[in-house]
Write a structure and sequence with these properties.
This protein starts with a strand and ends with a helix. A hairpin with a 4-residue loop joins strand 2 and strand 3. The protein is elongated. The chain is of the alpha/beta class. It has an 8-stranded parallel β-barrel with strand order 7-8-9-10-11-12-13-14, surrounded by 5 helices. Strands 2-3-1-4 form a 4-stranded antiparallel sheet. It is built from 10 helices and 14 strands. The protein folds into 2 domains: 62 residues, 2-Layer Sandwich (Alpha-Beta Plaits), CATH 3.30.70.1140; 251 residues, Alpha-Beta Barrel (TIM Barrel). It binds phosphoenolpyruvate (PEP) and manganese (II) ion (MN). Manganese (II) ion binds next to loops. The site of phosphoenolpyruvate (PEP) has 10 residues, from loops.
């Protein structure tokens, strides 16, 4: 339920309303917008006497929110959420964040070289997987703790924030110096992991599951937010369809649709969505034009030799060419 409050409403009356809601085990969440203040109610609101509430002097209007996601809902928070990293980089509300780097961290030299080049091309964040969710247990599983240490070392050496995937909440202490924690597609509905991430205060890049609906994606965001962490970035990375010509099918319509459904930033991953480096630049630009708040792109200095996802990785030169076109796409972005 959403209560739109009257402008300049009486503070004592508002305190009484807040206390009344808490007595009913309902938690009010306030959004102070430019024109109005909204009180979003989370909990079992079925017993609330709407007529009594509507009769209060401070109440302008009341809306029932029928969707099961509440805190992630645009109705609760009409303005875009803007998430800021420690170095001031922002995502959301018209701030485009470009994340780029290898699928997997392979060595200090590899990561340093890629970090330098993507930063020079304008990337805001370096990506690099240390814990890798591989379909085969015999495939390279990532450099794990050693990889995370290298990532943080390169972050400090090059001066760029970093994003990397977590697979087990017991690893959370290892992520202390990571700027954005990624939840991969395969873990989108690992609810215990989501609850633990909800209790930390780092931005979470939540990828859509291989066969999950947008509503399910938002319910996973809700798991994180309901534990107190409101810094959730959603990522569309392609879904499973009957088409086999691409690795997955990129659902570009997820961008404008999610912007209607939620206030959270939306990122596109054209690398995992297509599985083909030749398709990545056009899909990345399409995402920006569709209004995406960010991109996450795999870049490798030697894609043929990459230990993971080489076929979908851009070379640093290809990434540089794409980065040069992003500003133009932003100019015609539809929002
Ligand atoms: C990745 O980002 O390297 C990754 C494994 O992505 P996804 O979870 O989208 O498959
Ligand atoms: Mn990958």
């Amino acid at each position: 339920m959403v209560i739109v409050l009257k402008n300049n409403c009486d503070k004592n009356q508002l305190d009484r309303l807040t206390a009344w809601m808490r007595e009913m085990n309902i938690e009010p969440h306030f959004t102070h917008g430019q024109n109005q203040t909204i009180m979003g109610l989370v909990g079992d609101t079925s017993k609330i006497d709407v007529d009594m509430l509507g009769a209060l002097d401070i109440v302008e209007s009341i809306k029932r929110v029928s969707e099961p996601y509440k805190q992630a809902n645009r109705k609760f928070h009409p303005e875009d959420t803007v998430i800021e990293l420690e170095n001031g980089t922002k995502i959301g509300g018209g701030n485009l964040m470009v994340m780029a780097g290898p699928c997997s961290i392979e060595s200090e030299e590899q990561l340093t070289e890629i970090a330098k080049s993507v930063k020079a091309s304008g990337a805001n964040v370096l990506r690099g997987g240390a814990f890798k969710p591989r379909t085969s247990p015999y495939a390279f599983q990532g450099m794990r703790e050693d990889g995370l240490q290298l990532l943080v070392k390169v972050k400090e050496k090059i001066g760029i924030p970093v994003v990397t995937e977590i697979m087990d909440y017991e690893h959370l202490p290892l992520f202390e110096n990571v700027d954005i924690i990624q939840v991969g597609a395969r873990n989108m509905q690992n609810f215990e992991l989501l609850k633990h991430l909800g209790r930390c205060d780092k931005p979470i890049l939540l990828k859509r599951g291989l066969s999950n609906t947008l509503e399910e994606l938002l319910m996973s965001a809700e798991y994180i937010m309901s534990e107190g962490n409101e810094k959730v970035i959603l990522c569309e990375r392609g879904i499973r369809t009957f088409e086999t010509a691409t690795r997955n099918t990129l659902d570009i319509s997820a961008v404008p649709l999610l912007h209607q459904m939620t206030h959270l930033p939306v990122v596109i991953d054209p690398s995992h969505a297509t599985g083909k480096a030749s398709l990545v630049p056009s899909m990345a630009l399409a995402a920006v034009v569709a209004g995406a708040d960010g991109l996450i792109i795999e870049v490798h200095n030697n894609p043929q030799k990459a230990l993971c996802d080489g076929a979908q990785s851009l070379t640093p030169e290809q990434f540089d060419d794409l980065a040069g076109r992003i500003e133009g796409a932003k100019q015609v972005a539809y929002r």
